[in-house]
Structures are given as C-alpha cells and as structure tokens.
Fold:
Amino acid sequence: MSASKVSFAKALNTALADAMEASREVVVFGEDVGTLGGVFRITDGLTARFGRERCFDTPLAESGIIGTAVGMAMNGMRPVAEMQFDAFAYPAFEQVASHVAKMHNRTRGRLTMPLVIRIPYGGGVGGVEHHCDSSESYYAHTPGLKVFTPASVRDAYVMLREAIDSPDPVVFFEPKRLYWSTAQVDLDELREQYENGSLPRREGHAVVAREGSDATLISYGPSVPVCLAAAEEAAKDGMSVEVIDLGSVVPYDDGTVAASVRRTGRAVVVAESQGFASVASEIAARTQERCFHSLAAPVLRVTGFDIPYPSPSFEHHHIPSSERILDALDDLQWED
Amino acid sequence: MSEPTPAGEPAVREKSPVNPAVEASKNFGITPEQYMLPASSEIRLLNPDGSAVPESEQGQEPGHEYPMPEDSRLLDAYEKLVVGRRINDQNMALVRQGRMAVYPSSHGQEACQVAAALCLEDDDWLFPTYRDSVAVMSRGVDPLEVMSTYRGDWHGGYDPRKYKVSVQATPLTTQLLHAVGVAHAAKLRGEDTVALAMCGDGATSEGDFHEALNFAAVFQLPVLFLVQNNGYAISVPLSSQTRAPSLAHKGVGYGMASERVDGNDLAALLSVLGRGIELCRQGGGPLLVEAMTYRMQAHTNADDDTRYRERDEVAEWVAKDPITRMQHYLTGQGALDDAASERISEHAEAMAKRLREAMAHKPELDPQDLFRFVYHEPTPQLREQAEQLADELSREEA
Structure:
C-alpha cells in the first residue's frame, strides 16, 4: 500500500464501492448512474460489480427518486440517491423538506432516514443555466438534514463513507469543479483506517487547512482551494492567514471557528453561493456573537453576487476569486 | 439478486422487462390494453338496497370477474364498518367540544377504509392519508395513538414499523412514493410484501401521483394504488381535476391494470382489493383501483360544504350508504341477527366512550421533546437551544 495520485472523483467512486461492499443495505440509484456510470462517472463500474439491483437507473423524475429513497430507508435500506445537477434537485424539494427532514421527528425516532442525497454543485466548469447553482443554504436551513461538502480528495472519501453510515439523512454536496483535482492519497490505507474506526470523525468537525495568526478565512467546498491560494499570496506580503475548511456545514463546528477567530481577531467568510440569507451569513453572525470582544474588525463575507448564476462568459466575475479575498483581507482595518 | 460480475466488465444493457399484464392477457384471450383498462362499469356486488347484484348483471368481461366474499368475512368487516362510523362521528363531536384540534372525517367512505385494511397480511404495508384514520384503526392501531395527531399533541402518534402502517400523510401523494420505495426494498430482499397506497381524487393531479405510478410500473413493484374518489378536493369537483374518462383509466398509460369499484359496496371492495393484493404478491403488480364514494360531511370542521354542493346531491348518497347496504344484505342472509347487531353496537359504543374519556384529559407534554427527535444524533446547536428553553422554563417556574 502506498500513496498515489488520486482524483476527487475516484475517491468518491471508491467510497461508494467500499460502502456497497461493506453492507448489502447500501443501494445507489439516480439518472444515468447505471450503464453510463453517471454523467460525472462517480458511479462508474458499480452496476458491473454489484449488479443492477444495487446500482440502477431510475425514470427521469427527481421527486420520484427521493420519495422512493424515503420508502427504502423506511424498509431497512441505506439508499444513496444522485441528483444529476444542483438545480435539477429542486423538483425533489418537497420530499426532502417535508419527509426526508421530518420523518424522524414526526415518528419520535421510530423511523430513521439513513439516506444520502448526492448533489454535484457549484460553478467554474463553464456550465449552462441550471447546472451551476450553489444550493446548500436551502438544505442547511431545513431542520432534520445534515449537510456535508468536502474540499479535499481525502475528505471526499471519508465524508462520503460517514454520510452513508450516518443514521441521519445527509445532503452531500460535491463541488463539481474539484472532481478532477488530484492529491497523493493511499485509498487502501484510508479504507482500513475508516473501517477500523481510527480516523477522527469529520461530521461536526471543521479542520484547519492552513495555519496562520493574522486573520482567519472560513470556508467550505469549492471555495477552500481558492482560500488556500489567497493565503499563499498573502504570505508573500508577510500576512499569516489561517484557512478553516468546514466540510460539515450541518452540524456546524462553532468551537474550532471561534477558537481560531479569537486568536487571529479577524475573519472573512468565503462561499460561492449568493450571500444574502446564506450559510455564509449564518457563519458571520455566529462568529460575531461568539468572538465580538476578540475582533479587531467586522467579520466580512466574500460570496457570489445576489444574482441568478451567470452564463459561462461571466462566471469568473461571480465566483469569489483570490483577488476578492485579498481585497477583503485588506479591508480588515489593519493598523499601520 | 443476481451474482455480481467481476469489476471492470462493462454493464450489460437493460433488456425490456416483461409486462405482467401482457402475460396475464394471454390467459384471457384479450389484448394487453383491454386487460389494463377497467371494466366498462364499476364493479358492484351489492345494490344500494342491500340485494345482491344478479350474476347476469355483474361485469362478466374477461379478467373482471369477482366472487362474493363469504358471509363470515362480511360480518367481520361489517363490525369494523359500524365501529369506524361511530369513531368518525364521535371525533367530530369531540372537535366541536374543543377537545380535538381537527378531524377530517371519512363518514360515508368507511367501506373503503375497512376493505383497505382487511385485504392486507401482517407483513404488508398500508400508506394512509389524513382522512384514513378508520383504515389505520381497522389495521389494529390503537385509536388513542391515532388521535394524538388530531388532538394536536404530535404530528404522528403510532409506531409505523410495529403496525406496518406509515404515518398519515398530510401532503398529497408524497406517500405513494414511499410505498413504492418500501415495496422496492422488499423486492430487492426477495420478500413478498405488498404495499397498499391510498389517495383521493384531487390528489391524482399531483406530480408525485404520476411519478409513483410510473416508478412502480417500471420496476414492476407490488403496490396497489387505491384512489378514493369522493367527488371533491375540498370544494373543487373532479370535473375540474381531469378530463380522463375515469381515474382508473390512467392506469393503462403507465402499463398497469386498473379497476373501478363501487366504493360504498364493502363486498365488492373486499373482492376487488383482495384479488388485487394477491396479484401483486404473485408479481402481477402494480395495480390501480378507483373506488367511487362520497364524503358525506365537510372537508374538515373548518370547511363549509354548503358553499359548493347542493343538499340534494348529499341526500342522494345517503341512500347509497355502505353500512345500511351491508346490514340489509347480511340480515337477509341470516348472518346478522339481533344479538349480533347488539354486540356490534356495544363494541362501537365502548370504543366511543374510550375516546371521550381519553380526550377529556390533556397528557403531560415534555417541552424537551421538541428537540429530542429532530436528529438521531442532535447537532450541538440544537443541544444549546434545548438548554436555553429548559433554562427559560425553570426561571418561569421559580
């Protein structure tokens, strides 16, 4: 066993295969996930390996996919449903908000909903309308759901395994522009560590992706690599910037974020989604509430604009860039 | 489940699945379309006056013959009918007295309610709507557990897994997809569970109705969809919901067999649903059954049905009442004598008394329950809020 170059997509694919291998309760379904292996190939090879009973194509109907997943979860399965793109998940929203999220509460815990809804999300891939939304705030706003979004190859594997094993329903956001990113990872070792319980839990735990002492960037999903690039640039100007990768948006790790911001005294929240009434707003508010007396400047947000996701020719203006993050860091009321 | 093939081999392309209706039609010498369409008129075994429909007048089209159930089975069902009616009326009284928050009564539709529950085996699943409390109770769920929802104590009162009865659905037709999922899981495990999913006529306009029927048909799942066509979606008549010849006619569009049945004829319902469930169990599902019935009272206590329907129309349906019809038939058969009638009515009164007594007392509710069940593993944020509320309440008490 040794580390090799692994793509984000391969890590997700391996996590699905390992989860299916570990339990016959795990079934994978959605649009084009069978013979084709998914439009992003995340389910590649699963039908061939596990049979079309366990990885199958459904009719083209998102509410149908999630509604039947609810029934399967009621009857002892652990369904992993794929929504083909972020904005194509909206037809399933009633099933998600009214049943996936509420069934455990409504039945006083007698019915659990151990299902995963995988949603490729976000832009930066030149996608046309309805293919690039960052829709995590709708789900994070809905009590009863857990919301994960990995930013690294390693987390792609670990967090998808955690999501599938969770007794609670997890909406799993996959940053589609990171699908082809790679890292040196030993998947065999990671599998062994995950399965023997030696990995720290990622649910509810943010990680410090880069240590720093002058300011904290709080981010998740596709914006984490942008924050790391901005921190690298800032270092050239002598600024030490810490980057926090939430990974788990719900449950949210107040402790790790607050500890960092109390230490640095300055914070910028970075997310690709439109900012108004968003996850970024919630993080900014919570940070302010917990760290007010340690703050040297207001908590700022760098997010997408409050516009419908723009056409490919415009999207570079919309997605938070390293430059916009550096500008925000400059705005944090530094004393000369 | 088939044996997994080695990794790396390309998946085999799907072959077209065999439609069970096509197979079944061979036995009757009719086309698959003819098999899937409902009989030319609704299936009825008992006339409104309680006389048996002569065999010569029953639908004798191939594939649509239904036998009259045994008297003993009908008597058992009749008892549930009488108890169900008493519970419906008792609950409406409790709402008027302010002891219950709301109750959507199935007064007039009790035959559909009882038949839906009685045609299922223990391991089958029932998916009821908010109006189907009598079906839920007929399946054996304690009425007091059912009523916790309508008293306003919790959104669901009984254990769905214990009774194999899903929570009563308030949104329209979302539960049909859950039934499809339950049946799919059972099929994957090789179990012969059947799911019976209920909805109303107005609900057939919802998108999830279409998606559920289509998924069930594509995956050939053992689901029986029972539409209680009571004529109205609150105030809107069926003519404003659809231009289809009947709701049962929608089945053929999905490639499933369908039937229309007199929804106030308990004998016909038991026969049609009983055979439907058996067909599903043998792999001939899914199926669609439309039961023609009538909601004798307003949508709920909050509704005023004089604004949208004539009293003459309501009166017409009094004459088609499911209880008097079955009572006359069973009396004529010699299966229902005075002693049996008295025993049944005592049973119904005892049930009503139990409801009245239980609803006279509000149970102790624990505010911490608000947080307890949102997640299996609560978030730290929710724990904080639970502590906040507990702290607030303790200060109020101090």
